[in-house]
Backbone:
């Protein structure tokens, strides 16, 4: 079954870091870019960045540069998104989303179920 | 990085057609044919409805169609059905592997 399964909900204190995982199955992991998108409560979708499935290439939205790190483990078909220096505004559902093909321009055709990250003192 | 501009809400009656616009700039919507549209029901992950301006993924109803003129892309839903009630988001490739979303449009089926 083609799917992306994300790690469970997290509660963090301001200033802490969070690392969310996204495990792919049912398709060739190395053939698709992966994006991360977040959605604050009651708000719209926000693109965070993209990681190539092979190599070390990443591109982050300017807003998150310096605070976000995306990595992948091809041996387990898993991508990770780590966000540091958390603040209350980072409370959101975080999604991984697969690009349709092998280009960074491709649309997001497969989404994880989302991981709620709550930042609260 | 400014988001693409979408109307906050649109509405229509069952059987009617509606159009949602998505306005960007020549650096994103107008400069590339990489506009896509997503449907999101409450509490669910988004679903791809249109990619590369006009293409429908397998399994998406042909009642959904996309177009673009200049810096504005549009999603049209014909023959509105109750299950179309959802939030809709556009996104566009911007440059250097970056993407940008629209602010989202809430579709109400009256």
Residues:
């Amino acid at each position: 079954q083609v799917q992306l399964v994300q790690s469970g909900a997290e509660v963090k204190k301001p200033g802490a870091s969070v690392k969310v995982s996204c495990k792919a199955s049912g398709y060739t992991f190395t053939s698709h870019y992966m994006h991360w998108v977040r959605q604050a409560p009651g708000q719209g979708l926000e693109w965070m960045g993209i990681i190539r499935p092979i190599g070390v290439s990443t591109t982050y939205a300017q807003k998150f540069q310096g605070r976000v790190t995306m990595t992948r483990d091809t041996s387990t078909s898993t991508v990770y998104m780590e966000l540091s220096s958390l603040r209350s505004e980072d409370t959101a559902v975080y999604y991984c989303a697969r690009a349709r093909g092998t280009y960074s321009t491709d649309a997001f055709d497969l989404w994880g179920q989302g991981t709620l990250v709550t930042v609260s003192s | 990085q400014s988001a693409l501009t979408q109307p906050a809400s649109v509405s229509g009656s069952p059987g009617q057609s509606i159009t949602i616009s998505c306005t960007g700039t020549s650096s994103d919507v107008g400069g590339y044919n990489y506009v896509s549209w997503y449907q999101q029901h409450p509490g669910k992950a988004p679903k791809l409805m249109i990619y590369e301006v006009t293409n429908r993924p397998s399994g998406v109803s042909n009642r959904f169609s996309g177009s673009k003129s200049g810096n504005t892309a549009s999603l049209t839903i014909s023959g509105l059905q109750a299950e179309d009630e959802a939030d809709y988001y556009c996104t566009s490739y911007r440059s250097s592997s970056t993407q940008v979303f629209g602010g989202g449009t809430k579709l109400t089926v009256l």
In short: The first strand of chain A starts at residue 3 and ends at 6.
